[in-house]
Amino acid sequence: MDKKKIIILASYPQSLFNFRGKLIEALQVNNVEVHVAVPDLANNRHIKSQLESNDVISHDLKLARTGLNPFLDLITFFQLIKLIKTLNPQYVLAYTIKPVIYGMLAAKLLRVPNCFALITGIGYGFTGKTEGTRGLLRKLLKKMYKLALRNTKSIFFQNPDDQKLFGTLKIINPSQRNIIVNGSGVDINHFSVVPLPKNISFLMIARLLGDKGVREYIHVAKRIKKTYPNIIFCLVGWIDESPDSVDQKELDEWINVGAINFLGKVGDIRPSIKNCSVYVLPSYREGTPRSVLEAMAMGRPIITSDAPGCRETVINNKNGVLVPVKSVDALEEAMLDFIKEPDLCVSMGRQSRKIAEEKYDVHKVNAVMLKEMGIT
Fold first, then answer.
1. Could you give the CA distance from residue 373 to residue 50 in angstroms, rounded to a whole number?
2. 127-138 burial, b if ≥16 CB within 10 A, otherwise e?
3. How does the average pLDDT of the chain come out, rounded?
4. Positive or negative CA dihedral for 235, 63, 211, 284?
5. By Cβ atoms counted within 10 A, which residue in 186, 218, 248, 328 is the most buried?
6. How far apart are CA 14 and CA 23, in angstroms?
């Protein structure tokens, strides 16, 4: 039987294996030839080599992940038209904002029969203030999403809040097929349970964006260290291109005052999770945060925001604690509870692993997606 083709469109080369590796494997098992189109492969040759060694055909996409340069975005759009026309795939799956918008528009133009959009989060334009630059960006994104998503056979959402928002904003209509999946899933064998460290320590993993709650995390670290100077607060992450990003000067100040152990950008986050007692992500909004799922799979309790995408991962006071968005006081109180009652790390961490196995196993998540796509 001839293989069918799929093009997966993304904006981060690193996400292909970190977030979609098992999905790619599942597609190949089902006799699908997998093509991926992502930007910046020239500077990520190890990823290109890894793709090739796994029989994935890669295409370097000219895409400015952030910004609104119409000339650059037109280049992306026409490149996608050329690529889709050349490959003539039966399936296109796109995730993250620009690949979804321009990928779905190009696929619509070329009448690809099976187009699927995966909404992994709503991004900078839909969070924060509704006036000024963000307000204008929101209006533009709303119109572009609405036009692009008309062509989709199904839209995958990673949490019910994003699904509801797209309906409320009339980006999607009630007749459109859409389905909620449990995030990107997590490989529960790769992220296996490891013993907790002897001393209480906290960890946050994120791009260094204000909307990730990184400043709240640092603020609490400074407060707690005044009373508990030996408590360790680790931060894994990197400065981003987004206008919401922390700058180098601010990061240097955090490091210099001893608020955090900054670990930078790491390839394998398992050692960082292994060395923490509690995983913290005080984000303002997510799709479903993959780092939280990985920490859960490794048996760590979670402190995260009672916010879209985050709240789905925690049963409050069972496998972690939900805190109000932007509440430094509530975040501090939650951390102090673990410092004062370290046995909570054991009991809640055990529940985290159980939830990861039952709800977020990547194979279960991918099975739902492949069935919806008509591949299995």
1. 26
2. bbeeeeebeebb
3. 93
4. negative
5. 186
6. 15
Which pTM was predicted? 0.90
Domain 4-185+362-372 has CATH 3.40.50.2000: yes
Give residue 267's pLDDT.
86
Residue 3 per-residue DSSP state: P
Give the Cα separation of 44 and 330 in Å (integer). Answer: 40
- Which amino acid would we find at residue 95? Y
Cβ(284)–Cβ(241) under 8 Å?
A: no
Do 201-359 and 4-185+362-372 fall under one CATH topology? yes
Q: What would be the CATH architecture of the domain defined by 201-359? A: 3-Layer(aba) Sandwich (3.40)
Residue 305, beta-bridge partner list: 323
Q: How far apart are CA 149 and CA 152, in angstroms?
A: 5
CA separation, residue 56 to residues 94, 126, 275 (Å): 16, 33, 34
Q: Are 32 and 6 in contact (CB under 8 A)?
A: yes
Residue whose C-alpha is closest to residue 203's, from 314, 131, 296 = 296
How many whole angstroms separate alpha carbon 72 and alpha carbon 78? 10
Q: How far is CA 373 from the centre of its chain?
A: 21
For residue 63, count other CB atoms closer than 10 A to its CB: 23
Q: Are 286 and 308 in contact (CB under 8 A)?
A: yes
- Render pLDDT for 98-145 as a digit per residue (tens, 0 to 9): 999 999 999 999 999 999 999 998 866 666 556 667 678 888 889 999
Distance in angstroms (rounded) separating the CA atoms of residues 151 and 116: 9
What DSSP line would sit under 187-253, residue for residue? -TTTS---PPPSS-EEEEEEESBGGGTHHHHHHHHHHHHHH-TT-EEEEEEE--SSTTBPPHHHHHH
Q: Calculate the CA 218 to chain-centre distance.
A: 21
Question: What is the residue extent of each domain of the chain?
Answer: 4-185+362-372, 201-359
3-class DSSP string for 293-333: HHHHHCCCCEEEECCCCCHHHCCECCCEEEECCCCHHHHHH
Q: Report the alpha-carbon distance of residue 159 to residue 119 in Å, rounded.
A: 9
